[in-house]
Design goal:
Two copies of one chain form a homodimer. The first copy, chain A, has 345 residues and is an alpha/beta fold. In chain A, 42% of the residues lie in helices and 18% in strands. Chain A binds a DNA duplex (16 and 16 nucleotides) through residues 5, 7-9, 17-21, 23-24, 27, 29, 32-35, 38, 53-54, 56-63.
DNA sequence: TTGTACGCGTTATCAT
DNA sequence: ATGATAACGCGTACAA
């Protein structure tokens, strides 16, 4: 057995009062009054005995589990997920809530089903986090359990969600290049059909347009969003004439490929070529030489926002007005891969 | 309100039996007998009503929360932690347990607060996972709550723990190089004083010795375990004469630095130089060109082992015999960075 | 100002 | 073969 299991009645007996008084005092019940002397004595004995309310009993009585389920698709695959959890965690702590973790595989819908059959009982709300920004039609199984989506947009239109501002991030990246004097900026992008693809492309186009730079479709090359794809795409972009003096890459892994392409072409970064990535995958961005300037995804903030929103929904009965989504900014992280273009070339 | 909150009495009424019978049937109580007809009817109505036991009530009655606390240091910082969680998760599911997550900051006071926040949730046991393999003296607050350490060795000698086999992993790495015919193998290592440092060095030495290759301390260079450190160390190792034909690197990030050093020296991998890393950080190992052969850390397996061990402890009253640690193997992950040495040189 | 007693939804004991 | 009822530990009307 673990503890002597000190309960509220032990405290009451020890302090010479009733359980009601103890409960009132420890829970700061406004309506009930007790003498300051009693208050002190009860609190003291509670502390001395190391009393803490039994959560199972408390939850049963209050009909509140004080637990939030965090459904995460493939925590394993990405370091990003950790930051989401951290943000959610911190927000949960503010409200005295704890997080129970459920990892879902993306495919098995039956896994999903028995998980939340089990989950429906004990959890007050659910945070559903995906591995990467995408559109999602959440299974009906969650019923009317309050739910907030993280890094995913709800297709049904019922659930609040929070995603990164892909467009704004791309604008910031390209603007950084513009600010250094670049005018010919290639875009090493990807072929996947996800919101990030379209958003980052839109940001790229928009920023160049705002700077009155004519479109040049030959400067946009798409491949798969891995390092080899970045290598290929960069090779292609860097072979157009006149050669671009800077590259904006869809993500840091593609930027890693771009570094290799640059090296093979005898281009030094940032002297001959400036590069900006996206995602701020620190192992890559800091490991590359020179270190990669990139755009950070607001994972911590998304986790935090989602949890706070969920808590707000839990606390207010009319949740309809709380169903709006949020789009969080992606800040620029300056490192060493951007410099002004060379005078010639 | 969430659900109609279908309870056991609803099922009982609907099926025309008592709650006892329902409970007996749904929980497969051996001692209780019921007619097959009743059995069917009860199960059917339970399913039809979508009944599931209320965990809060169940826990209170059973005095078992069916929850395990996972205390993790800085989930954020490493993609590894995710795999630990996954392993623990899968093992927990086998036993019908759920995981409540607490992320601890590394400062002691916060950790203490987090720990007893966790204990107040009445978790049945605790898994304590660190960010990297190290020695640990766990705060006493856990009292006699069953605890298992992941990726950390318990200094107090009371708690079971599980860590990667650093020595064996290094042996495997060096052996792979030996098997390809290399005889002069440099070791790009780190300066930190952690078990991995000593273990990997020991494995390196041991393997060379077993192959009757004379010690050559000039082939071992230590720097900080980041990419720049790897670059510096590799540069140093590759400048000794005769130049080693292969490099074993303390981790993948240092290997990333070694790649750069090799490139600067005009050495092509794997033709002129073979490289093996450690950690199998996929973003790096797969992103490097050529892809890096490396040693994988058994994070999933550690999480799984720890949870299973914890469950075993929970289920048996004499837990002393279950306090032994485990050292799990680190498999080799073959990619493209190892080849036979060139005939000359 | 404090104490008594009930209910939260289960499971387990003991009758019937 | 089934049913009534007592816990589990807490919070809170309501009574004193």
């Amino acid at each position: 057995m673990r503890q002597k299991a000190v309960g509220i009645r032990d405290v009451a007996r020890e302090a010479g009062v009733s359980v009601t008084t103890v409960s009132h005092i420890l829970n700061n019940v406004a309506s009930a009054r007790a003498s300051d002397e009693t208050r002190e004595r009860v609190k003291a004995t509670a502390a001395r005995l190391g009393y803490g309310p039994n959560r199972m009993a408390r939850s049963l009585r209050m009909q509140r589990s004080e637990m939030i389920g965090l459904l995460s698709e493939g925590i394993a695959t990405t370091p990003h997920a950790g930051r989401i959890i951290l943000g959610a965690q911190d927000a949960a702590r503010e409200a005295g809530l704890t997080i129970v973790l459920i990892n879902t595989s993306q495919t098995e819908s039956d896994t999903m089903r028995d998980i939340d059959a089990l989950l429906r009982q004990q959890v007050e709300g659910v945070l559903y986090a995906t591995m990467y920004h995408r559109l999602l039609d959440l299974p009906r199984q969650l019923g009317d359990t309050p739910t907030v989506l993280i890094d995913a947009e709800d297709l049904s239109g019922r659930l609040p969600w929070v995603v990164p501002d892909e467009v704004g991030g791309a604008e910031r990246a390209v603007q950084e290049l513009l600010d250094h004097g670049h005018r010919r900026i290639g875009f090493v992008t990807n072929v996947e059909d996800v919101p990030a693809t379209h958003g980052r492309l839109a940001g790229y186009r928009k920023t160049l347009e705002a700077a009155s730079i004519a479109h040049d479709e030959t400067l946009i090359v798409a491949r798969t969003s891995e390092t080899p794809g970045g290598y290929e795409a960069a090779l292609a972009v860097l072979s157009v004439e006149p050669r671009p003096t800077a590259l904006f890459c869809y993500n840091d892994r593609m930027a890693m490929g771009a570094y290799r392409a640059a090296a093979e072409l005898g281009l030094r970064i940032p002297d001959d070529l400036s590069v900006v990535g996206f995602d701020n995958q620190e192992i890559v961005a800091e490991g590359l030489f020179p270190a990669l300037t990139t755009i950070a995804l607001p994972h911590y903030e998304m986790g935090q926002w989602a949890m706070r929103r969920l808590i707000a929904i839990l606390n207010s009965s009319n949740s309809t007005e709380l169903s709006e989504p949020a789009v969080l900014p992606c800040p620029l992280v300056r490192r060493e891969s951007v410099a002004p273009p060379r005078p010639t070339s």
